[in-house]
Amino acid sequence: MAIDEALLRQPGPAVLRLYGWRPHAVSLGYFQPLAAFADLPPGTEVVRRSTGGGAIWHGDELTFALTADQALLPRALDATYALLHDALLLALADVGVAAVRVPDGTACGARPASRWCFEHPGRHDLVDASGRKLVGSAQRRIRGPARVLHHGSIVLQRPAHTPFVAAVADHVDAGAAAPALRAAVAARLAAALGARVARDALTAAELAAADGFAAARFSAASFLAAR
Fold this sequence. Notes:
The protein is an alpha+beta fold. It is built from five helices and nine strands; from the N terminus they run αβββββαββββααα. Strand 8 and strand 9 (147-155) form a beta hairpin.
């Protein structure tokens, strides 16, 4: 979370981070109250995102975080979700996973009615043939500089705690497909933005900024309990 925040705040080229969670954890949407999750199993790691939406149980999944100048993306939020999620549809198809983008209905807002992000698909979410949500995301936009953070999760294996989700493993061997899926996500999102893929490492300045955000916000008990 802290690295994504540091990249959001720093002007520069678009950056796509792909990562997983060890240990598995729950991330709360920015506006969700911690008290609503008092029933989580003891010892569950919980963090708060800077993006809105519902909570996600991060088990075996591919998390993606795209940070970019606002000018690279459509101005309208709906058009941004359609552009990026259509790219993810192609990436999933590249590894043999069939899904569709929900074309209409209610958009998943910053303050959803359901506490879990994947419980009820909304407009632009990616779902399987039975209507279960496979990919969900949330977006944050800032001014000065005008930047965007688009966070999302692609479920690889269905977590026992959120059995209502779809998963890549419903279609293919998720472990075997994961490397190709990571490459496809990078390639398809780059194509959607008119960019090229180039592997890189975080700079010392980016790591220092992330350390600062971790200490002041994402590791702070006060931030987790702020709602």
